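Appendix B. Worked example

We walk through a single record from start to finish. Start with the input: the chain for Multiple C2 and transmembrane domain-containing protein 1, Phyllostomus discolor, length 691.
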Amino acid sequence: MLDSCKLRSACNLPLIYNKKINTSGTSNADVPLADPGMYQLDITLRRGQSLAARDRGGTSDPYVKFKIGGKEVFRSKIIYKNLNPVWEEKASILVDHLREPLYVKVFDYDFGLQDDFMGSAFLDLTQLELNRPTDVTLTLKDPHYPDHDLGAILLSVILTPKEGEHRDVTMLMRKSWKRSSKFQTQSLRLSDAHRKSHLWRGIVSITLIEGRDLKAMDSNGLSDPYVKFRLGHQKYKSKIMPKTLNPQWREQFDFHLYEERGGIIDITAWDKDAGKRDDFIGRCQVDLSALSREQTHKLELQLEEGEGHLVLLVTLTASATVSISDLSVNSLEEQKEREEILKRYSPLRIFHNLKDVGFLQVKVIRAEGLMAADVTGKSDPFCVVELNNDRLLTHTVYKNLNPEWNKVFTFNIKDIHSVLEVTVYDEDRDRSADFLGKVAIPLLSIQNGEQKAYVLKNKQLTGPTKGVIYLEIDVIFNAVKASLRTLIPKEQKYIEEENRLSKQLLLRNFIRTKRCVMVLVNAAYYVNSCFDWDSPPRSLAAFVVVEDMLEDEEEEDDKDDKDSEKKGFINKIYAIQEVCISVQNILDEVASFGERIKNTFNWTVPFLSWLAIVALCVFTVILYFIPLRYIVLVWGINKFTKKLRCPYAIDNNELLDFLSRVPSDVQVVQYQELKPDPSHSPCKRKKNNLG
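Next comes the structure step. The output line below is what the pipeline stores for this chain.
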């Protein structure tokens, strides 16, 4: 039965909606509105109808924000080039009271620019019936142009009373993060009934193989394609393949699977353009609910709204326990669970699930002396615990500079050379969360079962900031599995900030590179002093090689000069900036490579140095029994037939993969533990409490 609901106007924004209700339902008019935290609002964002066009092509790239009490609680995915988008996204929000309406705002996404406003509306929560699904149509309006028709948003909502439940202060909501970091995440409420909250139920392993016959977007008849993936709030962006319509990516990454039935992976292909908005090539989707578990699926996906195909490998696997719990529920303190975990990573189970290297338990106990981020002289701190791309959050402790969280986080370790990052933020109602401090702890440096006070550092991890955080960490792993995983490509973090041009960083990388080059120069002088004679053939060969390189560079310069005449002034500036960033990154890679070699031999990470010694000893023994020519023959056959045996294998170099685990000098400084003030010692604090 359709009943019309009364209109509500706030800030001159009218609300017009219809809802399907059952007249026998209980109205919430009789429920006291003053009770804090009494309701859970479950919303399904269905679709949009006849939305406003904001782009030149007569379309828009719409997304939706939900706000309650001035705080953003949900942000939808972006639907590209569509005025009638279909989202079908769900959000659950804990509502303190019903006086605050749900504020719905729609925007058009503009890459690198300010997003365009497409309209807004209010949903009056006091008009919803309790425990009854309600279909709502919200008519969008612009307060500056109230006569304009901006279309409508269709929702399904259900309001459920939560009286009688004792809840954590963490709400089921999406926090608003700084856009530059491309970081959106979700904090989950912990209830007494479910003290262990398993946050994801499986892993979606995706390998982006290649693209075929993609659409040419540049004037030269080619494109510079890259691909974006999105599953819920998780995102991944592939590397850019320059000047090709048939790119070969061979990239592998994982997403977390939160729902039993799967989900939809949104995939968009783009052409990279310097100095202007990237061109849209096409889009496609993968319905995970249609794929069988524990099996690798090869998918050839036709790009919609464009041309060409993408080739993927997708595998759905079950996940071992990843959880948040209260401090009173501790896996390693329960004897049965501890024995089970130790058995799982015992030396006898070397070849059982090589990707499951170990188990990590992190107790986030408390912090002291945090920075005051609010005008009241207080902060609203919460903690983010990260291990590679696994990310979990604590609840927020409001108006406190010495918060106590007392939470236990458990992770699966896929690489023992990973670094645990613990970051403290201040929650703000209407803005991005403010950074308060951070620590980075390599797993191999952890001392099991020891409660330690870690001095918080700045964002770059180069110096201290205000406050300390108390953690107790336990690591259990299989050393053989960890050694084998060292020789395969390292997992990349896919939400890291993009590199920006920095004069200070460029100079630092230049000095680091110069230091490494000087080591090589000094070594060359040493060799030259041992073999001090002239070699005319060698000098002639070097002269010919250098002459060829100079000729090639002159030809490339001529081509660049012709192309640059066609570019505008702005494009030239962006091109120069990109070149500088590339130089900055190349200097960093060269310097890091030299520093990693040095740090391998000076025992910066004993595990890796011992692994290198063992590998050399094994190779020496093999050489003693097997002639070198047979070893080279087997190695060559393996390399040349690898593509035939496994066509979609990702190329890797075991030596480079090993070196990627060795920290550079910059990382050594970042991971260095600062000494806390003696007054922050846990033991001394206990004595003071007793006194």
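Two observations about the output. The mean pLDDT is 77. The longest helix spans residues 569-601.
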